[in-house]
Amino acid sequence: MFEHTEIGxxxxxxxxxxxxxxxxxxxxxxxxxxSDASSVAIAAGRLDAPTREVLAARxxxxxxxxxxxxxxxxRTLAEERSRWLAKDTKNKPGSALVYRVRATELxxxxxxxxxxxxxxxxxxxxxxxxxxxxxxxxxxxDLDQRDALFDGLLHTPVPRQHIGGLAARTGLSxxxxxxxxxxxxxxxxxxxxxxxxxxxxxxxxxxxxxxVFADRYETLLxxxxxxxxxxxxxxxxxxxxxxxxxxxxxxxxELTQVAVDTNSLQEISTELDDIARxxxxxxxxxxxATRRAALESVWSQLIDRVAALVRVADLVTRAxxxxxxxxxxxxxxxxxxxxxxxxxxAGNRELSADNTHFVGDQIT
Length: 364
Prior knowledge:
Layout: H1 11-24, E1 26-27, H2 36-43, H3 49-60, H4 72-86, H5 93-119, H6 128-137, H7 143-153, H8 160-163, H9 166-186, H10 192-206, E2 211-212, H11 216-232, H12 243-248, H13 251-278, H14 282-344, H15 346-363
C-alpha cells in the first residue's frame, strides 16, 4: 500500500484540487503507476458495450487478465515506437534505416506482450467445452475482444517522465548535477554571482518533480485510477465495516464509466478543434464555441465524479488508520492477557521444574 497525501474530506475542497490538477495536467509529487485492475477498468472505456459487460462479468467471477508486470510498460513501448516512426527521415537514408530497425524491435516487443495478454492459456478457456461453458456464463472473451482490450491498454495513463525519451527521463537528474557543478566551479571567482544565478535557475527547472501528463483527460483518468487502487488495496475497505458500502459502490464499474465519458469528451473536443482550424467564417466559429461551452458541463460532471472517488479514497485511508490503531489496541489487550496467563502459570512451572530436577537427582 502506498502513501498518498490526503487533501481533506470536504467535497468542495477535493473537487477544487482535482480540477486544479487536471487543468495543469500535473499532480503534486510522484504517484505509483496504476495497477493491472485499474488499468483494465480504464482500458474498458475504449471498448464496445458487449465487451465491457463480459469484462465486468469476468471480474465478478474472479477471472483476471494476464499480467505483463504493469501495463504502463506497454504504453511506454507504444509511445517510443510512435516517436521513432514519426522522426523526419527526409534526405537521411542512413538514419531512416536506423529508425525503421528500432521501430521494428519495439513492434516485436509489443507483439510479444500482445501474445501474453491475448493467448494466455491460464486466464482464458481453451477447448470446445470450456469455451461453451464460459459463453454460457457470459465470461468468455473472443480473440478480437482480447485484441481490442490490449489496444485499449496501450493508452494506460502514464506520467510523461516515464514515457519520454532518454533525455526526458534523465534530464532532471542531469540538470540537478549541473546546477551543483556550476555553483562549485564559480565559487570564489569573479563569476560567482553569475554562477549562483545560473545555478539557481537550473535548480528551479530540475525541481519540477511532479507527475506531468499529456493533457487534462489523461490526468483525470490517472487520478481516478489511483483512487481506485487506494480503495481497492485497503484492508479496511474489504472488512465487515464497509460491507454495505461495497454493495452500494462498484468501484471498477464507476471507473470504467468515467473512462467511457472521458474518452468520448476528448474525441468530440478534438473534432471541434479540427473544425475550428479549418472553418474561417464567424458563424462556424460561434457555433463551435457554443458547442464547446456546452461540453464544459460534461467536464464539470466528470470532475465531480472523480473528486467523489478521491474523497472516498481519503476517507477509507483515514478509516484504515483508525482500523490499524484498533488492531494495535486489540493486540495490546491480547498481550496483557497472555502475560497474565503466563505469570499465573509460573507457580505450576516452578513445581514442574522441581519435579524434573528431582528426577534428575535420582538418575545421578
